Amino acid sequence: MSLGTGGGTIVTRATGIRSKRIWQGKLELTGQRPGVDKGNPEEKTRIRRSGAGRKPLEEKDPKLVEDLEKLVAPATRGDPMSPLRWTCKSVRKLAEELGEMGHKIGRQKVSELLAALGYTLQAPSKTKEGGNHPDRNAQFEHINSTALAFQQAGQPVVSVDTKKKELLGDYRNAGQEWQPKGEPEQVNVYDFIGPGGKVSPYGVYDIFRNEGWVNVGVTHDTAEFAVESIRRWWHRMGKVQYPAASELMITADGGGSNGYRVRLWKVELQKLADETGLHIHVCHYPPGTSKWNKIEHRMFCHISENWRGRPLSTLETVVNLIANTSTQTGLRIEASADETCYEPGKKVSDELLCSIKLDKSTFHGEWNYTIHPKGR
Question: Cα(41)–Cα(225) distance, rounded to whole angstroms?
Fold first, then answer.
């Protein structure tokens, strides 16, 4: 427009744009483009004239969006008559199903429609913890206040639990580790239990000192094994750090080898109290809340990170990998192998259970109790 006559030819040579397009641009600048309402501000910003181009597929096929929603809506997932009830709802599969319903559509358009409807790809979220006990929060507050009182008194507080059992041998371990290119660690194709069997790492985590002990058992995860692990922690680490301790607080899950209903757990704790002279206070987490046990996210997770991608070929390998686990926050772990054979299924008589010197707390005595040493 500024070049005047012959300007269109110059612009065509400089840009390669056809003269017809330049002429249409000149009309747009002067508001003389055919079909454009000069009084409508929206029309002045459009590239195409209103109504130009192909109509959207959902306008040409009004039932398309409705049928797509029926296939993926949460309300139809439990319906056995839904065509995708028992299949993977990928965009390709959805496009195929819509095609069988008489709609002509590709997987890309299905993806665009799902996004417009507010659907996204999501994995299941682990949020359900089973039964929600009415005193769940109160028990957490009780554990916290008791632990702080022990800390102020200079008494030890430990969190205990059994880590996931691991196969011994050349088995695949989750995760990746640096290896020369094209030379991955060779492991067995199948995870059948071999001659090495399984190991049960039982951990004792000192909450306030950020130190842990792991007793790696090779037989059964029993209450006897659990208390023996605590005993070994006390003789190896506990009494060194707390020479004047007269009490010990243990936080544990509500189930497993250290569950609040396990009779043998209390019997073995009585033996430990008699040997050490410690008054052992036990606080169990409410049912379904084991993931809140501090040992899980302060110690066990770092052990799993340390041995990721490595086959746990021997018992010595497991012990060394655990013992060499550390963090920037100062976590220190010691470990040892426990090759004692612990027999499962030991029965505890009512008479033996009544002989335990046990005091139940006024608040949920089944979860919170103290075992005193006898004759002291």
Answer: 80
Distance CA 148, CA 327 (A): 24
Q: What angle do CA 341, 335, 148 make, to 5 degrees?
A: 110
> In this predicted model, what pLDDT tens digit does every residue of 239-250 receive, in sequence order?
999 999 999 999
Instruction: Return the exposure string of 55-73: e unless at least 16 CB atoms fall within 10 Å of the residue's CB, then b.
Output: eebbeebeebeebbebbbe
Cβ atoms 225, 217 nearer than 8 A? yes
**What tokens were used for 368?**
């919170």
Instruction: Tell me the domain boundaries of the chain.
Output: 7-45, 57-116, 137-175+193-371
Spatial distance between the Cα atoms of 289 and 138, rounded to a whole number of angstroms: 13
Place of tokens 């397009």: 21
CB 267 within 8 A of CB 348: yes
Tracing tokens 């100062």 back to the chain, one arrives at 330
Alpha carbon distance 219, 258 (integer Å) = 16
CA distance 237 to 211: 9
- Contacts (Cβ under 8 Å, ≥6 apart) of 227: 265, 268, 269, 271, 272
221 CB-contact burial (10 Å; exposed 0-12 / middle 13-18 / buried 19+): buried
Q: At what angle do helices 91-100 and 107-116 cross, to 10 degrees?
A: 100
Closest CA to 221 of 251, 257, 252: 257
Which tokens belong to 136?
A: 């769940």
**What three-state secondary structure class fits 275?**
helix
> Closest Cα to residue 298, out of 202, 154, 159?
159
Q: Is the pLDDT of residue 36 over 60?
A: no
pLDDT tens figures, 337-370: 999 999 999 999 999 999 999 999 999 999 999 9
- Phi-psi region for residue 51, left (φ > 0), alpha (ψ -120 to 50) or beta? left
**Number of C-alpha atoms within 13 angstroms, CB side, residue 278?**
26
